[in-house]
Amino acid sequence: MWTQADAGHAAPNESVTRNGTYHLVDPVLGEEELRGIIDLCERVGTYRMASAEMSSTEIGAGLPERFECFYDLARQRGHENDQPYDPTHEDWLDFDRAFTCQFRETYADLGFVEPEESKYPEADPLLYHEAFISGARELLDRPVVVPVAALANLYVAGQWLGPHTDITEYRGISRSTTPQWLLICMHHSRLFDEWRLRIATAVNFFNVCEGGEFRCYPDGATEASVAAPKRANTALLMDTDSFFHEVRPVYRPDGRPAPLVRGQVLQFGEDRMWRVINPDGAVVETYAWEDVRFSVSWKGYCFRDDAERKAWVEHSDDLSMEFILERLTDDLLERGLLRNRNPDNVTMARAIVDAYYHAPPVEYH
Hints:
This protein is of the alpha+beta class. The chain has helices at 31-44, 67-76, 90-100, 124-127, 130-140, 180-189, 306-314, 321-335, 345-356; strands at residues 15-18, 22-26, 46-49, 103-109, 144-156, 161-164, 169-170, 196-207, 214-216, 226-227, 234-238, 245-247, 265-268, 274-277, 283-287, 292-303.
C-alpha cells in the first residue's frame, strides 16, 4: 500500500482545525518551503487559461467544457430558452470569464497511476504533506491515499469563479476524453457512485489580496456558505467534487470584470509585474503581486482498500460511454425530462443539467 505517509512533510508547529466536512491547516509550510513555492510560481512564469482543456466526445460537441455552470447560471438569470452557447451574448461572455478564464499550471502530476518524479521538486512539500494525507483518510474514510497532483491557479483583479464543484473522476473515463460538465453531472446524479474515484482536495492560499475570498457550502447548495480565513500559508482540505465552492471577485478599483477572453496567458516579467497577453502578443493589462490571487490545489485519490485501487490501476471494472448514456437516458425518461431515447446532444446536455446540477446563486456580477 503506497501512501508516502512516512515521507510526509509538515510545517513546524502546524495546527489542524477539524470539522466534519473540512480541515483547516494553518500554517501549511515552513518559511523556506513557502519561499520555494512563491519562487516556483514566478519561475514558471506563464499560466494558460482553463479553457485550453478540451475533450472530444460527440455529446460535448459545440458546448463549453463547463456547460453545467454556464447553463445553471443562465437558468438563474431567466435565460432558459437561449441558445446553449453564444459568445456574442453579454451574459455568456460574463460566464466565460467566470468559468474558463482562470490562469493555471500543473506543478506536480504523478500520472494518476504510479508515483514518478515530480515536475517541480519545490512542490514536493505540498504533494507529500502529512496533514493532507492523514486528513484525506479521515474525511473520506479511505485508508489508501495516493497523492497525485499540485495545480496552481492565479486570478487577477476583477476576476472571479462562481459556485461550482470540481471535476469528478471515474474508473475508465477522464477529462481527456469526456466533457467536464458530464463528469460533474454524473456525480450529482449519484447513478455512478460505484465507479467514482474519491478525491480529496487541499486548497492552499499563498498570496492573499483584497477580495478573492474563498467560500464553500459544506451543508449543501441551499444553506449558508463558510469563508476560509484570509491568511497566507493556510489550506482548506475537503471533497471539492461534492461541496460547492467559489472565489469572490478579486478587488478592482473600477468594479468591472477583468478584460479577459479565451486564449490569453498570464506572464510574470523581470520587473516583477504580471501581464495578461493576447495570442498576438499584445499586452492587455499589467498587475502587481498585490492585485493577484495565488493558490495551489493538492489532489489525492482515496481508496477503500488495495483491491479498489487495483481495479482502478488495472482497468478491471471500467465505465463505458455507452453504459453511461444508457443509464442517464433511462433516468431522464423516467423523470419526464426527455421525450425520446435519441435526442440531439444539446437537448441531452440541457436535460442532464436540469435534472442533476443546481448551484448556489451568484450574488455578484
